[in-house]
Amino acid sequence: MNIRRAILWLVAIALASPALAEKIYVFYPSMAKPNAVQSALQAKCPGSEITVFGRLADFTAMVGQTPPDVILAPKALADLFPAYKPFLKGTRGGSPLEEAILVSTKPVSASAIATLNVGVVGVLDRAPMNGYVQGVLGGLPKLKLVTKVEDLLPLLTFGSADAVIVGAGQVEDLKGRSQANLQTTPASGKIGLLVACAKSDASKTESALKGLGVAEKKMLGVDGWTK
Amino acid sequence: MTRAYRMIRPMGAILVLAGMALAQTKPILVLRPAGPNFEETFKGIKEALGPTYAIDELVVGKDSEGDELTKKWSATKPKAVFALDNKSISLAKDVRGKLGDTAVPLVALMGVRVDAAIAGIPNAASVTYEIPAVTLVVNLRAVSTGKISKVGVIYRASMESFFLNNAQFCKGENVELVGHKVADDADPRSSLKDGLKSLTERKDIDALAVFNDNFFLNAKLLKEVWLPTLSGWKRPVLVGVESLVKPELKFGTFAILPDHYALGAQAAGLLQEIEDAGWKVDGVRNDQPLSVIKVLNMRGMKSCCGVQEGKINEIDKILE
């Protein structure tokens, strides 16, 4: 009986050991702080070792230096790592794409986008970010990159940008922080939501992600998953 | 083809490519004091600019003089210079003048009133270090259940333009910044006491914002005026120094501090705009800092106002 118990303990320890845990790197700018997102995800994925990055440069450097098993990142960023293949796409309202919205203090015209200063959270380096935004908006405004979603509002407060661009799911978060008369204008394009990508079989992570609650999914900017 | 030639040819190609790469990088000089905050800002500048800029730095000390910078400047031949803190700004200003190199734009940050420090200097821009009051208020409102529409502040007459600028930004967020102005030659102790009394006696003041001005904010006045005067005042006190929100101090409720990495990245973005304009700064350009670190004194917050459910995960650091 004692030997059997000891074996069970050894198996449990081995299963819980970090060497067997799937290493997951996450980069997804949202209002929630990276440490809060990390704690929330880690609690729901006890068999994984999760690191949530707040800085793009740290994420890309670590993927290069200590490659994880799985990455969770906005599609545009995940596409830069072709060794990682998507196994789940985050969705909102059933779609892996969401409408791009311009938020501003004064009316702006989406058709005059090239004449505007537009703030956006940098999910790529500056040069590829220009191409990405041009692809989404159909024109290239003068971009003001920020590192956090919450930094978009000060761009409007201080008049540093004519508008900021967010996904439809982030509009209420932004408006909820402000008592200014913020206006929304749909842009012409759509933004790819978060995708989960892996180098090899990630069935464990896949089932853990599918089991996330509403709060954790909200932190990742999604309300569901699709293959 | 000899073996040696077969080896030399690819090496030559590599050298040509390396030479081309070097020719495409843009030399940038960063002047900064030592210390973790400056290192973090430097990291933000470097990572935001990326590999097409060759970034060199000179660590400036209290005793640094122009000669060292002159040598560095001449050797680097920078396309632009970042000056972090007032000593670096002053050195850069002097050396640029001495070298007659006003075509090299100067970006100033992390100093006291950097807008004033670069006033009148051609081809210069800055990112203000002082966190605007509107940023304090918006961040407090984002976590507090209480109403925040009037915020009191005590300031010196010489900071009037700073106060008015802040009041204007606050107006955009439906917040009235209620100022109590004190003459620069007033006695700090009595003027602070009077100011605090007049603001805290008003029932319509929802919070106090404390500017980082050592005329009013020092250990002596904290002990003798701030703490005794505010001991029974049950509303939030917004500060710009982390040590002032320690729960055991019973003073600051919410500290809003500069995010140094993001400040560097913001300054890098400003530099790229200057580059796009042909390395020229048009007129006066003083940007406000966009990104902050939030530290909440949870005990203090609970004793004066509620915390919105689910908003705690937007705070960088919580002190219980």
Q: What report would you give on this structure?
A:
The complex is a heterodimer of chains A (227) and B (320). In chain A, 34% of the residues lie in helices and 28% in strands. Chain A has helices at residues 2-16, 34-44, 56-65, 75-78, 126-137, 152-157, 171-176, 203-210, 214-219; strands at 22-26, 48-52, 70-74, 85-91, 97-104, 117-121, 142-146, 163-167, 183-192, 194-198, 224-226. In chain A, strands 2-1-3-10-4-11 form a 6-stranded mixed sheet. A 5-stranded mixed sheet of chain A has the order 7-6-8-5-9. Chain A is of the alpha/beta class and 227 residues long. Chain A has 9 helices and 11 strands. Chain B folds into 2 domains: 3-129 and 260-290, Rossmann fold, CATH 3.40.50; 133-258 and 293-319, Response regulator (Rossmann fold). Chain B contains 11 helices and 13 strands. In chain B, helix 9 links the parallel strand 8 (207-209) and strand 9. The longest helix of chain B is centred in the first third of the chain and has 22 residues, at 3-24. Chain A binds chain B through residues 31-33, 36-37, 40, 55, 57, 105, 125-127, 142, 144-148, 150-151, 153-155, 157-158, 160, 176-180, 215, 219, and chain B through 47-48, 50, 132, 134-135, 138, 141-142, 169, 172-175, 259, 261-262, 265-266, 269, 272-273, 276, 287-288, 290-291, 310, 312-316.
